[in-house]
Design the sequence.
């Protein structure tokens, strides 16, 4: 919980412990690992919104989520943040 500042890394909403869910940045269904660096805290709403999307697909579709992810997902792997930055800049350039 401390690692993400108790916020949803996608919408930045403050999280109550009971409503926090763990999200795999790279979905397990796409071969992502259940390991630190790939697991972040998200609210249930964003977790459902993201579903099984790959991170770059999700961030291009919802650039606000990518912007918050870059800011709040301190524990996430650097490669995910690089990917988020690229997706967000692509989304805003389009
Ligand atoms: Zn959220």
Sequence:
């Amino acid at each position: 919980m401390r690692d993400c500042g108790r916020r949803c890394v996608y919408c930045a909403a403050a999280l109550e412990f009971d409503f926090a869910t763990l999200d795999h940045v790279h979905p397990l269904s796409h071969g992502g690992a259940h390991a630190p660096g790939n697991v972040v805290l998200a609210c249930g709403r964003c977790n459902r919104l993201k579903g099984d999307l790959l991170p770059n697909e999700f961030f291009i579709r919802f650039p606000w989520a990518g912007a918050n992810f870059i800011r709040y997902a301190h524990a996430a792997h650097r490669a995910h943040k690089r990917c988020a930055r690229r997706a967000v800049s692509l989304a805003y350039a389009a």
About this structure: The longest strand covers residues 20-24. The chain has a mean pLDDT of 92. The chain has one domain: 2-93.
